[in-house]
Amino acid sequence: MIPPVGGAPVVPYIAFWSSEHRPPGILVTGGGGIAYADEGPYERDDMGVLWKRVGISPGKGRPEFGNVHFLRQRRAMRKLLCQICGGPSDRTHEGTLWVVGEDADEPELHKPGYVTTHPPLCVPCAVTSVEACPHLRKRHVALRVQSFVMAGVHGALYQPGGLFPVAYDVGGVAFESWRLPWVLASQLIVELLEFTVVDLEAEHAAYLKQTEARQKVFGGRQNARLRRAGR
After folding, report:
1. What DSSP state is assigned to residue 61?
2. Beta strand extents in the chain (DSSP E only)
3. Cα gap 139→72, rounded to integer Å
4. Which pTM was predicted?
5. What count of other Cβ atoms lies within 10 Å of the Cβ of residue 94?
6. CA separation for the pair 141, 109 (Å, rounded)
């Protein structure tokens, strides 16, 4: 998450806003897992996982930089949107751009199966994130991800307790786990299967070069159309 920079907050797409809090609802035990007592038709995803309730009113109230909006995080993961601006993440033939707050020598980064709840990024937002986030300034690794899978969810874990389930932990649950019906999900987890560690500065330089080249082509065509129109 990106804190305020130079007095002007850079509010990530997946950030929570104070206006988006909703009453949590009453959880009950039923059907071999947890359910809302007044559960509606859109409370679960296509895997049957129950999700934490949340409002949708971005831009209203105060941004809560330490909290992630559950639905926007899930949408960004599924559609490969940039977690900061909400536009398309950067995708090339080398893969989709991810930035993780790990040391480059982290063993998990050098074998398949690294998992994360952080959606991908576009190049400009990746650079902004690294410059603005204290955690990423200390250590970060940029990845080009060639293949990945939606692996599970992170959320509050419950166990049977009569009519009302009892919360006992918070953590990640794989989609194939027997605990899946007992989790109240708050973030989607992605497993990165094939990826390459890359230099973010080099990625930024290539992005700027490509942007300049496109501007010369498409900007020139636009200017030519304006001249023909007598503008």
Report:
1. S
2. 15-17, 27-30, 33-36, 50-51, 63-68, 91-92, 95-100, 114-116, 141-159, 166-174, 183-198
3. 26
4. 0.86
5. 13
6. 9
- The count of residues in the chain is 231
Residue 70 burial by Cβ neighbours in a 10 Å radius (0-12, 13-18, 19+): buried
Cα dihedral 8, 13, 18, 23, rounded to 10, equals: -170
64 secondary structure, DSSP code: E
7 phi/psi in degrees, rounded to 5: 85, -15
Outline where the chain has alpha helix (H).
70-79, 123-132, 134-138, 200-228
Q: Are 88 and 104 in contact (CB under 8 A)?
A: no
Residue 137 pLDDT: 82
Contact yes or no for 195/219 (Cβ under 8 A): no
Instruction: Show the low-confidence residues of the chain (pLDDT under 50).
Output: 1, 3-6, 224, 226, 231
